[in-house]
């Protein structure tokens, strides 16, 4: 980047002449509070008539008119901004003008009032795209380095349609590039251009198509340089980084949490599912069978210390009594709570976010005294199993996946517990963290499985992966309604009753 230290505007004459700045649409007016000595933004969201005051860290009242002029339009190019700052502060030298402009924009960014935009045609009414910040921590300085050789679009970048707009995002950073109505040509330039995936920057001929746009992408974090990549960054897969970014609270990011976004649109999905078949098998409860099946009296510490994964099934199979006692102690519904919250809730021995208990339990049985091989849905409120009409090859395939995940080879486990999430139950209340919350709930459930199985003298083992498509084949349920998110092997007593 070439800089000429004579006037404020010349700092950008050779590098970013198409870079503009403005205010986010929710800023409706700009004032100055004499009491606090700070510039104040009047903001409103959507069609709300109420205006909210957001004080900035800017204390120079001379700049109120400058920023006010951006309300309701796209703002100004950065070169013009620097010229205006120089006129307001004639005592400043060129470098000081740039620093003053930088400070002003940084203060606006801290309250998420700043938008950047790109427009190569000075006569155009609408920029080709603009940048929305999703974090009060994000800011890009006015002067940054040149794009490194070999830069290419980040592997964490992706495109989606959102509210009728095309959006380019990078889950590493807290900004989004939103295409304007005339910005459709930018996507082919980014993803299909000759420079994509190469070891060079766009040629001079390529730059003429959208001058300065490659540098615009670099400025806002949408490019990566393989020569500067780190092992730590490479260890993150795209889907893992995106999931992490979307399901964690980040300053000012998307709405997250208990918003009840569907409260006035659709009824909450019922807490208790209707029976999935007419073939019901009642399960014994702990007080229904002999004391031989009742667990011992180890302390919690002793059970936790003894807990370990035992993959191989033992000589004796799982029994219906043991299975019934296990399910009763871990996931049986103790209470169906109605009319207290906006949606029906459940009480189980294990906790769950919001007491919603969206996880349904399925049993894939291979060997269990008192129960035929098959696939069953567990109805916790009845403490009963309902047999599903699943094909035999599907049942064996599900067990086979569990064998591969745990290194058992062809030796099938006695049973596999499949935890399936009814995501709409969570999505009715929570926003942008449902999948994460369901995984947390499944993890809590797995630990309960481990501890109860250990105390009962059974053989537990969580699996690291499973096949949701096979679950869909077995149940006939679409992924949007209910999907498998975790699996857990439960065998009868271990071959050798030793946990050391």
Automatic annotation (TrEMBL):
Signal peptide coordinates: none
Domain (Nitroreductase): residue spans on this chain: 306-480
Pfam family, one: Nitroreductase
InterPro entries: Bacteriocin_Proc_Enz (IPR052544), Nitroreductase (IPR029479), Nitroreductase-like (IPR000415), SagB-type_dehydrogenase (IPR020051)
PANTHER family for the chain: NITROREDUCTASE MJ1384-RELATED
NCBIfam families with a match to the protein in the record: antibiot_sagB
Protein name as annotated: SagB family peptide dehydrogenase
């Amino acid at each position: 980047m070439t800089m000429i230290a004579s006037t404020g505007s010349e700092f950008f004459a050779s590098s970013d002449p198409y870079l503009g700045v403005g205010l986010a649409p929710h800023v409706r007016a700009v004032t100055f509070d004499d009491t606090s000595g700070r510039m104040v933004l009047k903001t409103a969201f959507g069609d709300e008539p109420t205006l909210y005051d957001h004080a900035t860290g800017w204390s120079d009242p001379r700049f109120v008119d400058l920023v006010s002029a951006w309300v309701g339009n796209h703002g100004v190019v950065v070169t013009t901004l620097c010229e205006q700052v120089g006129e307001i502060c004639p005592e400043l030298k060129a470098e000081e003008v740039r620093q003053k402009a930088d400070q002003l924009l940084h203060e606006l960014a801290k309250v998420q009032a700043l938008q950047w935009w790109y427009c190569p045609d000075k006569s155009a009414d609408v920029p080709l795209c603009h940048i929305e910040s999703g974090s009060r921590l994000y800011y890009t300085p006015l002067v940054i380095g040149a794009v490194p050789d070999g830069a290419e679009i980040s592997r964490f970048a992706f495109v989606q349609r959102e509210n009728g707009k095309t959006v380019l995002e990078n889950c590493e950073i807290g900004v989004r590039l939103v295409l304007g109505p005339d910005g459709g040509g930018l996507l082919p330039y980014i993803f299909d251009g000759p420079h994509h995936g190469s070891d060079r920057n766009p040629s001079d001929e390529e730059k003429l198509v959208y001058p300065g746009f490659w540098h615009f992408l670099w400025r806002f974090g949408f490019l990566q340089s393989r020569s500067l990549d780190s092992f730590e960054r490479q260890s993150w897969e795209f889907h893992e980084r995106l999931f992490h970014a979307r399901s964690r609270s980040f300053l000012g990011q998307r709405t997250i949490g208990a918003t009840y976004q569907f409260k006035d649109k659709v009824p909450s999905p019922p807490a208790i599912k209707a029976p999935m078949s007419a073939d019901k098998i009642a399960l014994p409860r702990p007080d229904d069978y002999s004391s031989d099946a009742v667990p011992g009296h180890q302390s919690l510490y002793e059970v936790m210390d003894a807990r370990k994964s035992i993959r191989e099934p033992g000589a004796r199979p799982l029994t219906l009594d043991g299975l019934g006692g296990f399910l009763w102690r871990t996931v049986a519904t103790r209470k169906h709570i109605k009319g207290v919250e906006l949606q029906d809730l459940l009480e189980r021995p294990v906790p769950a976010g919001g007491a919603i208990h969206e996880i349904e339990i399925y049993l894939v049985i291979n060997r269990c005294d008192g129960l035929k091989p098959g696939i069953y849905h567990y109805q916790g409120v009845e403490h009963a199993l309902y047999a599903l009409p699943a094909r035999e090859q599907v049942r064996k395939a599900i067990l086979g996946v569990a064998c591969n995940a745990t290194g058992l080879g062809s030796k099938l486990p006695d049973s596999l517990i499949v935890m399936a999430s009814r995501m709409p139950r969570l999505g009715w209340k929570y926003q942008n963290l449902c999948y994460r919350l369901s995984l947390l709930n499944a993890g809590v459930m797995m630990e309960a499985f481990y501890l109860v199985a250990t105390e009962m003298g059974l053989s537990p083992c969580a699996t690291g992966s499973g096949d949701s498509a096979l679950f869909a084949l077995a149940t006939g349920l679409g992924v949007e309604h209910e999907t498998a998110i975790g699996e857990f092997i439960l065998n009868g007593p271990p071959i050798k009753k030793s946990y050391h």
